[in-house]
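Request:
You are asked to prepare a plain-text protein record giving the amino acid sequence and the backbone structure tokens, at your earliest convenience.
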Amino acid sequence: MRGKWIPVLVGAVLVALAVGAVVWRGRRHPVPPPAAVTAAAITAAQNEVTLQGKIRPQHITGVTASISGFIEAFLVEPGQDVYEGQVLARIGAQGLESAREVAQAALERAQEQVSQSEAVVTAARMELSRAEADAQRSRMALDRAERGRDRQQTLFREGATPRLVYEKAVKEYEAALKDYELIDATVRTGREHIQSGVDEVNGAKKIVADRIRLLEEAQDNLSAAEVHSPVDGYVVSRKGEVGGSAGLSDELFQIATDLYALEVAVEPKAEVLKRIVPGQEALVLVLDLQSAAMPGVVREIKDNQAIVEFNSTLPAIKPGMQADVRFKLE
């Protein structure tokens, strides 16, 4: 009987030793109480807040119309890049374009009149030049004829030359005088013609100057009816609609001039806003670009909003994108 109980006793001892070892190990490595982990998580959550806002540029140039009227056409859309001087819209330009075309046609007619008048003057001067040369030759012939007549007259008085020779010399002189008078009259007429032509050219040039002024006014009016971009940049927004009115003070476009200087305006609850101050650091996470996270700084607190500015390093980040802004509160 004693031999049968020995294995049973040994087994009971081994079980007791195993239970004791487990209890001893549990005392050397206690498990942290669950309540302590929960408290730490709550504290971290209270010191960090994430708010969502829309990305916008820090530097914006507003564009207004130069004249009042109705919007005839928009030539660019928000999200487009534009360059300085580019036409963005037209304000009631149809009638102004017609006025410009009329002024252009009137100028061309006036310039054609000047060209024709100048051509007439040029031809008249050439004719005058030939007439003056003929007059000079005629005058020389007249002088010779006059000297011949005078000599024959003196000889005839003295009876040293026949009457027929004297009368011939007189007729030659009279013919030379008549020829000279005709050519001289042509020269005077040519000079008067040239002066008249010059006066006509000057008058035509005055008309051209007036037509140029009218054309410039029409072009200025047409240019004023065109809304031009004053800068190189990115169209952030556009207001108005085709057919609607546009006043001198109405801002039709907003153009961002620097797409790397951006900001996000977030509107936290009052108890959170009290814990955000200018100069405080933040982290900007662009939702459309999962890998885009950039450091930012609170620039100002305005109208219950915190304005966080940051410098973008990615051309893909554009105004209008949604972003999360993460603050660590004091």
